[in-house]
Amino acid sequence: MSSALAIASVTAVLKNLLENELIQQSAITGMGDVTITALPPDRIPAGAEEHAQLNLHLYRLTPNSGWLRSNAFASQDGQKQSLSLALDLHYLLTAYAERDFQAEILLGYAIQKLYETPILTQEAIRSALKSVSASSNAALTALSTSTMADQREQIKVSPEFLSMEEMSKLWSSLQTRARLSATYQVSVVLIEDRRVDTALAAGVSQEVNS
User: Which ranges of the chain does DSSP label H, i.e. alpha helix?
Assistant: First the structure.
């Protein structure tokens, strides 16, 4: 069962994956400490204060209609409903740097890591959430109760290639200067309906099997 913490949990897991990758590659990149954040881009220092950094920003949520169609059932009033809200998460991954080529290097390693991790496995999710929940940050500590690893559907990570016009509109909406970026879609993330009782779930099971 996936709780309301599922959205934040996905971001935390992706951030943890990128942090581990950059730690492993720090000797090769020669950049020293690289900061990995999950902030709105307009909160990232720019200009003279800019330093080596990767930022993962969740900028959009959309319904996963395919999952809904295949898992919907007819309610008493004849309307199609689902036991879960199925979402796709859309991320903007941006590299910042103070020297030539650093942004390209950072983004290259990040893209490679996400390409090598097309599915967030249960083991990876549990390991990442255990790591971040040890933080003194209260919000991260709360993720220790997340049940995302028990979600019955796989969580897939895939690049989402936006056109130049779409990317321009995205950066314009963020009201900050554009930087070298890549976009990703994470699907499917389920948030269960807490109002659904055991009797209803049993009724759905009988309807599917009939």
Answer: 6-24, 26-29, 65-71, 102-115, 122-133, 138-142, 164-174, 198-209
Comparing CA positions, the residue from 115, 116, 101, 112 lying closest to residue 31 is 101
Token pair of 152 as six digits: 């019955």
Q: Which stretch of DSSP H or E encloses residue 131? A: helix 122-133
**Domain map of the chain by residue range?**
6-209
Which of left, alpha, beta for 32 (phi over 0: left; psi -120 to 50: alpha)? left
Please list, in sequence order, all residues whose beta carbon lies within 8 angstroms of the beta carbon of residue 75, skipping any fewer than 6 positions away: 81
CB atoms within 10 A of CB 177: 11
Q: Tell me: the pLDDT tens digits for 54-104?
A: 999 999 999 998 876 666 554 444 455 557 889 999 999 999 988 889 899
User: Is 111 exposed, middle or buried, given 0-12, 13-18 or 19+ CB atoms closer than 10 A?
Assistant: middle
Pairing of strands 73-74, 80-81: antiparallel
Question: Helix count (H) and strand count (E) of the chain?
Answer: 8, 8
Specify the pTM.
0.84
Q: Is 99 helix (H, G, I), strand (E, B) or coil?
A: coil
Residue 41: count other Cβ atoms within 10 Å of its Cβ.
Answer: 22
pLDDT in tens, 152-168: 889 999 999 999 999 99
In which order are the strands placed within the sheet that holds 119-120?
35-37, 53-63, 84-96, 181-192, 155-159, 119-120
Residue whose pair of structure tokens reads 């390693």 in the numeric block:
109
62, β-bridge pairs: 88
